[in-house]
Structures are given as C-alpha cells and as structure tokens.
Structure prediction request, 121 residues.
Amino acid sequence: MSHQAISLKDKLAKFSDQWAPKVIAEINDYQVKLVKLEGEFLWHKHDETDEAFLCLDGEMKIELRDGQVALQSGDLFVVPRGAEHRVVSERECSVLLIEPRGVLNTGDGNSELAADNDVWI
Prediction:
C-alpha cells in the first residue's frame, strides 16, 4: 500500500475544462472532486444529498432561490439536499466538491452541461 499526499495544485494543473468535476479521492461512499468554473451554471438540485463546495482559488457565488452565498478562496458552503441552486463565477474559480458517488453535476443529467461522472485524475 502506498501512502502519498494528494497535491491539489498538481491535480488542478492536469485539466483545463470547466464545469466537469474530476474525482481525486473517495471517502467511504463519498467522492472528493476538483472542478474549474467560469460563468453561470444552470439551476438544479440534488434531492437525495447535500453538496459541499470549498472555494480553493478565485471567487464565486452560490445562488439559491431565497438568497445567495459569496465564497472566496478558503470559504466552504454546504448546499442542503433539495435546495435549488446554481453557481456563478465572473472569472475562473477552482473548487473542491464533496458529494456521494454517482451524483451528477446537473442534478438530473438532462442538460448539455451534464459532465461524465466518476472521471478520475
């Protein structure tokens, strides 16, 4: 068994596509993912799970139907299960996501923005 730290910086350098989360680790049934964002994502929700967003670099907003949360580098926000939300970032932003294995980035997958699931880097 190899014991090795995961370098977020190195993992982020391996891809440039946006809105397409990449798995870097698993914790029980949860996945730790990295994603790069810029612009506005679509409104969606996850009926079965909460979704954690840790802003690593840049600034972003998570818009909810009843308000919004601004995140800067180092800030964390958990979107509660069933809460309709969308992410907005004026400039490219790097984010770490924590969510159960199999969660689609668009909620139901019915969008051209639906990313392939379980893509490891």
